[in-house]
């Protein structure tokens, strides 16, 4: 099983004195079940897994209305004793039972010392239909596709991180492979075994089919055509700014596309990145402006666009690198979702636009993504001029790590240069500014 960054957060949850049942959220196939099993093996004496998608389990736990009954049945089917402090109870695909979901509040109240984790790939879709999670009775964590450094550990090349004299060359080489393969655990697993891309294509095709199949499971008939359009067109505009009107050259109304995108966003298949036009904290999005699309996984995006072997040519390279940067930043949000934006001036003030920005402590991190050789950054300079010392400017590119000094007009600027392959270390690197 692959090593994941979230494991440290899970250990902290296990040891917390104010622990509550944990809902592990994430899109289908990002590795939720695998990481819970690994965590259980390494940290508990016993592990009980109840998968409510299995028809016999679904029937058995139907109409269960108290904790004692649930535990009795779970012990019966697992043939294991559930002991507080020693057993991890994992309830998978909880969206199959509203009765079990409602029990979570009682686990928190009546069995606070029992470690309980639940997951459900389509739970968010159920919440759209009026299901409710017990407020204040649960904890949350979010799991995303594997990051580049998680990929490095998965292909068993972590040794390159311990050899600084050759790290840059090898990291860049592996990074280009990661851009093609992406971060879905099954895709990485298939590549790690044979170091061939053909099995990866097969995995991506199967994942795409599964997301379309899921629509039939949770969508109402009148919604399906809008959801299917977004699933099949969205990856083609990953990294781009879009509007709801005429989405995918369709004649659907903007409201219909907006609702479909919102539904898929809740299942974590995609993320809308809204714009801001000020540098005041807290950051307030301009919801009527165009939004930037970040898809679940860069490997799936490349598969949709059929450019797996030529991703760094033409205009596509800037789109795919923005997808990578957005996807990597979003994966930072393990305990809470990561609030990500892009900055753009009002049209009557000019055309300046900064690719990504977010609040970090009492500052605003502003990021320009440069996939080519150009170092033109007028928009970033404009944002710095507007925000002054509140702005922490970063240029993400293929160049080496360091502080770069620029002069634009009569002003001087210091900008942190971060290579693409080090982006997920941004919280450490930001201290260089």
Characterize the structure shown.
- The protein is α/β, with parallel strands linked by helices and 433 residues long.
- The chain folds into 3 domains: 6-142, P-loop containing nucleotide triphosphate hydrolases (Rossmann fold, 3-Layer(aba) Sandwich); 148-333, no CATH class; 342-432, no CATH class.
- 40% of the residues lie in helices and 18% in strands.
- The protein contains 16 helices and 15 strands.
- The strands form 3 sheets. The chain has a 7-stranded mixed sheet with strand order 8-10-11-12-13-15-14. The protein has a 5-stranded parallel sheet with strand order 2-3-4-1-5, with helices on both faces.
- Helix 11 (224-233) crosses helix 12.
- The longest helix is centred in the middle third of the chain and has 21 residues, at 198-218.
- The chain starts with 5 loop residues before the first helix and ends with a helix.
- The mean pLDDT is 91.
């Amino acid at each position: 099983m692959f090593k994941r960054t979230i494991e440290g957060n899970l250990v902290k949850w296990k040891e917390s004195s104010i622990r509550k049942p944990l809902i592990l959220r994430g899109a289908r196939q990002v590795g939720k079940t695998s990481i819970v099993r690994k965590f259980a093996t390494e940290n508990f004496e016993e592990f009980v897994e109840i998968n409510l998608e299995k028809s016999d389990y679904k029937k058995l736990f139907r109409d269960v209305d108290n904790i004692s009954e649930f535990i009795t049945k779970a012990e019966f089917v697992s043939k294991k004793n559930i002991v507080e402090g020693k057993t991890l109870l994992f309830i998978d695909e909880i969206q199959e039972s509203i009765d079990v979901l409602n029990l979570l509040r009682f686990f928190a109240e009546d069995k606070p010392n029992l470690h309980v984790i639940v997951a459900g790939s389509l739970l968010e879709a159920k919440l759209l239909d009026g299901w409710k999670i017990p407020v204040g009775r649960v904890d949350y964590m979010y799991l995303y596709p594997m990051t580049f450094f998680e990929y490095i550990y998965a292909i068993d090349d972590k040794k390159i991180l311990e050899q600084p004299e050759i790290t840059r060359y090898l990291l860049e080489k592996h990074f280009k492979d990661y851009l093609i393969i992406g971060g879905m655990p099954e895709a990485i697993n298939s590549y790690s075994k044979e170091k061939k891309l053909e099995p990866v294509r097969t995995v991506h095709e199967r994942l795409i089919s599964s997301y379309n199949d899921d629509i039939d499971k949770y969508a109402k008939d009148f919604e399906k055509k809008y959801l299917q359009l977004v699933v099949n067109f969205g990856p083609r505009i990953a990294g781009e700014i879009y509007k709801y009107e005429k989405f995918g050259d369709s004649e659907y109304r903007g409201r219909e596309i907006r609702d479909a995108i919102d539904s898929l966003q809740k299942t974590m298949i995609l993320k809308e990145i809204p714009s801001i036009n000020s540098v005041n904290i807290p950051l307030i999005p301009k919801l009527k402006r165009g939004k930037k699309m970040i898809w679940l996984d860069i490997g799936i995006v490349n598969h949709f666009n059929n450019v797996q072997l030529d991703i760094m040519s033409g205009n596509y390279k800037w789109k795919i690198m923005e997808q990578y940067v957005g996807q990597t930043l979003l994966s930072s949000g393990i305990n809470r979702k990561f609030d990500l934006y892009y900055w753009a001036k009002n049209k009557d003030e000019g055309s300046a636009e900064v690719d990504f920005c977010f609040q970090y402590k009492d500052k605003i991190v502003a990021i320009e993504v440069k996939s080519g050789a150009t170092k033109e950054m007028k928009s970033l300079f404009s944002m710095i001029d507007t925000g002054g010392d509140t702005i922490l400017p970063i240029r993400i590119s293929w160049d080496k790590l360091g502080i770069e000094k620029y002069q634009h007009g009569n002003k001087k600027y210091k900008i942190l240069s971060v290579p693409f392959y080090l982006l997920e270390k941004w919280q450490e690197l930001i201290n260089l500014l």
